[in-house]
Structures are given as C-alpha cells and as structure tokens.
Specification:
Blueprint lengths: L2 H4 L8 H8 L5 H22 L1 H10 L2 H26 L10 H17 L10 H27 L3 H24 L1
Helix pairs in contact: 3-5, 3-6, 3-7, 3-8, 4-5, 4-8, 5-6, 7-8
C-alpha cells in the first residue's frame, strides 16, 4: 500500500472544519480542547448531578418545588462548575485557552444540562411533569453520547452505556430519597 493511499484525499473541507477555522481555532483538536471538552464536562455534570435533587423534590413535594430546586441547582452548579474550570487551569501550561472562556463555557453548559429537565416542572401535574422530564433526560443523555462519539471518537454504544449508567445512578438516588 502506498503512502498516498493512506492519507485522506485532498478536497473541500467539511462544514465543521471550515467553521472551526473561521472561529479562529487552529484545527479540530484545538477546538476540542478549548470548547468541546469544557462544554462536555459541564453538560455531563449539569445533566447527571441535577437528577437526584430535582426528582427527589418532585416525588416528595410538588412540581413547583421541583422547579425551584431545579433552577437553584442549575444556576448554583453553573457557577460552581464555571468557577472550578476557570480556577483549575490558566490555559498557559496546557494550551487550553483562556480560563475565563473555558469557565464560561463549562458553567453555561452546566446550566443547560440542568435546565432542560427542570422546565417540565412548569406543568403543575407532577406525574405528567415527571414523565416529560424523563423523556427530556433521555434526549439529553443521547445528545451527550453523540457528542462523545463525534468529537472523542468513542463508540456510540460505549457512550450510551456510560451516560446511561451515570444517569440511572443519579436518578436512583433521587427516587430513593424522594420515596423515603
């Protein structure tokens, strides 16, 4: 096999590659380190860590309580995760870019990961809200698995198992506490 056949054919860049370059990143790896990884950390944390308190509040109280707890968890966790990311690495040693930018991405994605399955608790009927929130959580976990597959080259099946196990553990904690 010649060395020429081992390389990708020269041709137009993909849309993602063009956008990455247009946004000022050197390549997809640079984009991965500066945006995807901090965003994924926030999204995973926001989605999984918020399940226990939100579902426990819904089971023990009401949709309104679950909504308030969910908003508090989303915003508090967003600040905490953003602050942690910004304070853990200046970016100079690792080449991961601005600490403030990474912290903002991580914090913002943590809020996003928490807020979508909080919003169903605007529905006053807690049973219906729990069903809708459960569906939203499944969509969120699938999205996380796809991002891991797309950017980290982790097989989709492994990614789905990874996020499902984390989600089930946190959900189990919430349901267990709510039922106690």
């Amino acid at each position: 096999m010649s060395s020429q056949s081992k390389t990708a054919p020269a041709g137009p860049e993909s849309l993602v590659a063009r956008l990455i370059h247009r946004w000022g990143f050197a390549d997809e790896r640079d984009f991965l380190l500066r945006v995807v990884q901090p965003g994924l950390v926030g999204l995973i944390d926001g989605t999984i860590s918020s399940l226990a308190p939100i579902f426990a509040a819904a089971i023990t109280s009401s949709s309104h309580t679950a909504l308030i707890v969910g908003l508090g968890v989303a915003l508090g966790a967003g600040v905490s995760m953003g602050w942690s990311e910004a304070g853990s690495d200046t970016g100079e040693e690792t080449g991961r870019g601005s600490a403030v930018v990474r912290g903002s991405i991580t914090g913002g994605m943590t809020v996003l990961g928490s807020i979508f399955h909080t919003l169903p608790f605007l529905i006053s009927d807690v049973k219906k809200a729990l069903i809708v929130a459960g569906i939203v959580v499944c969509i969120e976990l699938f999205a996380i698995a796809w991002i891991r597959y797309r950017f980290l080259n982790i097989p989709m099946r492994s990614s789905l198992i990874f996020v499902a196990v984390g989600g089930v553990i946190s959900l189990g904690i919430g349901v267990g506490l709510g039922a106690s």
